[in-house]
Amino acid sequence: MNWVRLDPGDAHAMMRDEGALFLDVRTPVEFHQGHPAGAYNVPLMLRLPEGLKLNESFINDVGRVLTPKDTVVLGCKSGARSARAAQLLLGGGFAHVFELASGFEGQRDAFGRQVVSGWKACGLPVAYDAPETHRYQSRAEEAS
């Protein structure tokens, strides 16, 4: 099963017009540096003392805030993590999965020049804070 890749304008329209929910799979630090307004944060990768590691409870963590019936738009920094997250969600029973192909920051070439605009560069709504129910750290703290 495959997912649909969207550009930022189409992702925003799905959220605004169809009630799609945005799932930001970046780390909590990245999320707090700016994210699509209304986004939920469940990181695909966790920053541990030994480095970045796959969040082994990713599907369970997503299940705490979204249901398999929800229409989900996934995003990360530039599109790599969100593609992996899409595979996991589809395998975990989520049926309506879309991916923000260019990510929040957009895609850059080897020289650091932006070659594909992301959510932020397109001027779409950005937030720097989120309700506790949308922040991963809050849910992690509740579980402990």
Describe the structure.
This protein is α/β, with parallel strands linked by helices. It has one domain (4-56, 75-143): 3-Layer(aba) Sandwich (Oxidized Rhodanese, domain 1). The chain contains 5 helices and 11 strands. The strands form 4 sheets. Strands 1-8-7-2-4 form a 5-stranded parallel β-sheet. A two-stranded antiparallel sheet has the order 3-11.
Reconstruct the topology from this structure.
Layout (H helix, E strand, L loop, with lengths): L3 E3 L1 H11 L2 E4 L3 H5 L2 E2 L3 E2 L3 E4 L2 E4 L3 H6 L7 E5 L4 H12 L4 E5 L5 E3 L5 E4 L8 E2 L8 H8 L1
Parallel strand pairs: 1-8, 2-4, 2-7, 7-8
Antiparallel strand pairs: 3-11, 5-6, 9-10
Give the structure's gist in a few sentences:
By secondary structure, the protein is α/β, with parallel strands linked by helices.
Brief descriptors of the model:
alpha/beta, 144 residues, two-stranded antiparallel ribbon, Oxidized Rhodanese, domain 1, 5 helices, 5-stranded parallel β-sheet
